[in-house]
Amino acid sequence: MLTKQAIDAFTALTGSAPAGVWAAPGRINLIGEHTDYNDGFVLPFALPQAAYVAAAPRADGRWRFRSVDLDETVEIGGAELLPGTPGWHSYLAGVVWALRQAGHTVGGADLVLTSDVPLGAGLSSSAAIECAALAALAELNSLDIDPMDRAKLARVAENAYVGAPTGLLDQAASTLCVADHALFLDCRTLDTRQVPLAVTAAGLEILVVDTRTRHSHVDGEYASRRASCEEACRILGIPALRDVTDLAAALDVLPEEVGRRVRHVVTEDERVLAAVEALSAGDHAELGRLMTASHASMRDDYEITETSVDLAVETACAAGALGARMTGGGFGGCVLALVRSDQVEAVTTAVRAAFAGAGVAEPVTFLGRPSAGARRLV
Ligand code: GLA
User: Using CA of residue 214, residue 220, residue 222, residue 225, what is the dihedral sign?
Assistant: First the structure.
């Protein structure tokens, strides 16, 4: 449906059909939070929800970006590709800029965007746009860029153009994930492995609870967590927290709060490796236990949760989920719960009742089925 919407909007804008439509998904991180910028491990999977870009080249060397959802159109030339330019179109313009910075020739184009990835929910709506635009522009310009390099370029757009100092997790997930799998990514070596995550076949579902809580100070908190990790590396004399080999010894020399941040990152890396083992062994009870332990670590050590996500996790677990945790950068957003298929309704009902009882706005719930990464649709 969104494919048709993108095509129709493109045709209305330009008077002709697009050369193609490309899509890239939002993601859920199964486990491995705030480990990507510490050279650690992550284990995301792609959502069915995606950003769609209908595109075609233009002859005048300019770029026109249209958002169907916002009903806005912006047109710029090469001189207006300026990092830090605010606005929704920076996610698209940033990709043009990142490609050109890397030495690629990118001709002018019309790009029409629509997306059903919830905004600000910690599901990587921005990476989905960047990765869809990258897929479109790479193909329109016949650029031979392998998937990991595409993810890296999309991250450059996010970091240097949009100005958000994120790691590689979101763009790698949006580009590299395949259906029915989670993507194991070593953020130091950039080695990847597709780990089967056929939850439905195992009689399970990943229930996503979007708490719809969004905090305006998220960017500052994210930067401050990164700063604590860098401070710890300076004190410990190591390049990245990946290099902590003796956690107890590290905690002895670090200030208390910085030590707790480090403990989260180091133990989270261990949990990602254990989660890959658990999945390979079909041990979903262990996977659930690791998810809940990850949440506790984010809550107590990294201090990036807040009351509604904590409530969702506690309630889901009490109602029979095998495990639950917040996903994404933190301070609200989504919780995922690993639930037996026959308990989805009970867990959903319990979470809704708990939210109503606590006077928290009604959450949005849906099933997170591991889906395909960036691709051409038409
Ligand atoms: C955000 C960032 C990612 C990652 C997560 C936390 O989603 O974009 O790079 O750091 O937070 O795991």
Answer: negative
Does residue 329's CB lie within 6 angstroms of at least one atom of ligand 1? yes
Both 206 and 189 in a single domain? no
Ligand 1 in contact with 268 (CB < 6 A)? no
What local confidence, expressed as pLDDT, does residue 214 receive?
Answer: 81
Same domain, 343 and 314: yes
For ligand 1, say whether the CB of 158 is within 6 Å of any of its atoms.
no
Residue whose CA is closest, atom 9 of ligand 1?
167
**Res 300: pLDDT:** 98
- Contact 330 CB / ligand 1 (< 6 Å): no
Instruction: Verify that 186 and 206 share a domain, yes or no.
Output: no
List the CATH number of the domain containing 253.
Answer: 3.30.70.890
342 CA distance to ligand 1 middle (Å): 32
Residue 216 binned pLDDT confidence (cut-offs 50, 70, 90)? low
User: Contact at 8 Å (CB) between 186 and 109?
Assistant: no
* 169 and 316 assigned to the same domain: no
Let me know whether 219 and 170 are in one domain. Answer: no
Pocket lining: 126 vs ligand 1, CB cutoff 6 Å: no
Residue 129 maps to which CATH number?
Answer: 3.30.230.10
How many A from CA of 169 to the centre of ligand 1? 6
First to last CA, the chain: 13
From 126, 158, 166, the mutation candidate for ligand 1 (largest count of ligand atoms within 8 A of CB) is 166
- The total number of structural domains that make up the chain: 2
The verdict on 179 and 306 lying in the same domain is: no
Using one digit for the tens of pLDDT, what is the confidence trace for 230-259? 999 999 999 999 999 999 999 999 999 999
Going from the C-alpha of 203 to that of each of 46, 97, 341, 342, the distances in angstroms are: 20, 45, 5, 8
Give the nearest ligand 1 atom to 37 CA.
Answer: 10
Condensed to tens digits (0 to 9), the pLDDT of residues 291-330 reads 999 999 999 999 999 999 999 999 999 999 999 999 999 9
Nearest one of 334, 376, 377 to 135, comparing CA atoms: 376
Average model confidence (pLDDT) across the chain = 97
Identify the domain containing residue 205 by its residue range.
197-367
Catalytic residues: 170
Q: Which token pair is 87? A: 């606005």
Tell me, yes or no, whether 334 and 215 share the same domain.
yes
Are 57 and 294 in contact, with CB atoms under 8 Å apart?
no
User: Is the same domain home to 57 and 160?
Assistant: yes
pLDDT confidence of 207, banded at 50, 70, 90?
A: very high
pLDDT of residue 55: 99
Ligand 1 site, residue 293, Cβ cutoff 6 A = no
